[in-house]
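Support reply, case 0932

Customer input (verbatim):
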Amino acid sequence: MKLTIQDISKQYKDKWAISHFSAELNNGVYGLLGPNGAGKTTLMRMLADILQPTAGNILLDGEDIRTMGDGYRDLLGYLPQHCGFYKQFTAHRFLMYIASLKGQEKKYALAKVDEMLHLVGLADHANRKIKSFSGGMRRRLGIAQALLNDPKVLILDEPTAGLDPKERIRFRNILSELSGDRIVLLSTHIVSDIEYVAKEVLLMNEGQLLKQDRLVTLLEQLKGMVWKAMIDESQLSSLKRHYKVGNILRQPSGIEVRILSKEQPLPSARTETPGLEDLYLYYFNEELAE
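Our regenerated output:
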């Protein structure tokens, strides 16, 4: 299966939220990285056929998703950044309601809802009202509804927001198991969500695609540009003015800093292996969320 994003743009009044964005996605997990305001959510809403591009086309196996209509939506699973719930519903009733909207027969839906509740760890809370759920539990319920129709194209906008580390690991494992025969696009600010599961990373800023490649290939360009050094408090302000400084860790013997620089920033600095945080800092000049 192949999803082709063909030179799409999206205009809101006098602002271009997406500008000439092109990419090609095959089966596997793709991580979408970019700062706030980069256009990630707008892009995902177009891929979910909620927004129409001002220009350009989105094709699934060569067919425009607009002409596919319900045929495309039957293959689609979508988790928006802010997922709405009927808070008086129980988790089971909510998923049954979503299953009915997706046109699933009751017998099949009952089995699928139970399967999804177990998958996201909510089986023991199936008959609790959603209004009593924590933020993390609601996020897991949102993930369950996106997977109900066994989608071949899965669009996930900040799916792990509100999940604790154990839940994020569970979610990453679910994605890895699912990704063999479907396209998964995952937008997140959590480094490990992408670092361990993404086949490729798409770097996006100001509505445009900056790079699309395997993470190891993207990190190769930073080889020899990531440094670690111990400094005194008096050196920190000057260092931050002249270099991109990532991690700052106060130790008993001084301050340990991680620096991005093409040249050795300090005589005591030693090169480090680049990571995704360094890549993010390099392209967007801001740190990723932990």
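We compared this against your earlier run and they match. Two observations from our side: Residues 2-219 form a domain with the Rossmann fold fold (CATH 3.40.50.300). Residues 106-119 form the longest helix (14 residues). Please reopen the case if you see a mismatch on your end.
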